[in-house]
Design goal:
It contains three helices and 25 strands. The protein is mostly beta strands and 366 residues long. The strands form six sheets. Strands 2, 3, 5, 6, 9, 12, 14, 15 and 18 form a nine-stranded mixed β-sheet that branches. A hairpin with a 3-residue loop joins strand 23 and strand 24. It is globular and about 75 Å long.
Length: 366
């Protein structure tokens, strides 16, 4: 598929093949080739909405090219595990350029053709397990470049405690990536973080550790907000005792830089004693095609402890990609069976391009 305004991006399928790395989200725009330092980050604004078992994160950054020439630059951004990019927009010469997914090799050829013809172009490729690189040309000398990224991920809730992380600090990447990310971690003018939590169930508390300046607000038992502003301009001059500015010349304005060196972690806690719940989010892009859904089953505090035994089903992947791991699968099942109680039951099902059950229905764990 083409991308509007001659902008193309591709997201490859390397994710399942590469080892995991810790996510970061500082977002850097670096001249291609590595001979010049990263562009200054002027502003970095984040908006998060957590609702219906999903978290939607919108990141918008403005970079300034202080170099004397137009550049081809690489914007590198990490995406959390299990997240998916929903939107990517770059403003070139003040015009928004929206990206879509195309086949990888075709996208690379289109990008090179457009760049050779002197037209604005961009290319996004997956660089690692959760890292994507966006090639942008041209990045104008002495001008700003604005980039917006939106991604979605399942909300993490366990035993009534929810957790969201916007990762800003460096962490477990390879040395080359680590050097790249630590090259520029300062926002020159403004950093803002705004999160809105809309819960289907009452929430009795929200915490943001290690961010004492964060403002936490509550609209209702099911809706909370978190806001963090830093790097805003600071007015200097005289003020009266009540905090109002006195008459006279306008006070001077001095910018403050903000360092992107600490994760923003937001926790929320559901009210005690909630009943069990089943949440379903459906998605069907084409009315004539099959859709997908995400189902979340949450046991409630009111469920009594199981006394009469449990039923277990072991579903084992026997496809070619699992060759060499069959012994580990068998050992894992054997250990689980050895820990069962006599009143428990189990079944074992193998699957590849079809399914086969090793047990004839449930078997007592005796």
């Amino acid at each position: 598929m083409k991308i509007t305004r001659n902008f193309f991006c591709t997201f490859g399928f390397l994710a399942a093949l590469l080892p995991g790395v810790a996510a970061q989200a500082a977002g850097l725009l670096t001249p291609a080739g590595g001979s010049l330092p990263p562009l200054d980050i002027k502003t970095h604004d984040v908006e998060v909405v957590i609702e219906d078992a999903y978290a939607i994160t919108r990141v918008e950054q403005v970079f300034h090219n202080s170099h004397q020439q137009d550049l081809e630059a690489v914007y590198s951004f990490p995406i959390p595990e299990k997240a998916a990019v929903a939107e990517f927009t770059v403003w070139i010469d003040g015009r928004p350029v929206n990206g879509e997914v195309v086949e990888k090799q075709r996208a690379r050829q289109i990008y090179e053709d457009e760049k050779s013809a002197g037209r604005d172009a961009g290319l996004a490729e997956q660089d690692g397990y959760k890292t994507f690189d966006l090639h942008v040309a041209p990045v104008r000398a002495g001008q700003d470049t604005r980039i917006r990224l939106v991604y979605m991920q399942p909300a993490h809730v366990d035993t009534g405690i929810g957790r969201y992380v916007y990762p800003l600090e460096e962490g477990g990447v390879d040395e080359e990536k680590l050097a790249f990310w630590t090259a520029n971690e300062t926002v020159r003018e403004r950093f803002s973080f705004k999160l809105k939590l809309r819960s289907a169930y009452p929430v009795d508390g929200v915490r943001v550790p290690d961010q004492p300046q964060a403002l936490i607000g509550q609209t209702s038992a099911q809706e909370w907000t978190v806001e963090l502003l830093a790097g805003q301009t600071v007015r200097t001059g005289t003020e009266d005792g009540a905090g109002a500015e006195t008459e006279g010349p306008a006070p001077a304005v001095q910018p403050q830089a903000f360092s992107l060196n600490r994760d923003i972690v937001v926790y929320w806690r559901h009210t005690d004693g909630l009943p069990g719940s089943v949440d379903l989010v459906a998605y069907k892009p084409d009315a004539d095609q099959r859709g997908t859904f995400m189902l979340v089953v949450t046991p409630g505090d009111d469920l009594a402890q199981i006394q009469e035994g449990s039923d277990w089903i072991f579903v084992l992947d026997m496809s070619g990609s699992m060759q060499g791991k069959y012994a580990a699968l068998a050992e894992g099942v054997a250990k689980a069976l050895g820990a069962m109680r006599p009143q428990d039951r189990f079944r074992i099902v193998l699957f590849n391009d079809g399914t086969r059950e090793l047990t004839s229905g449930y078997v007592n764990a005796t």
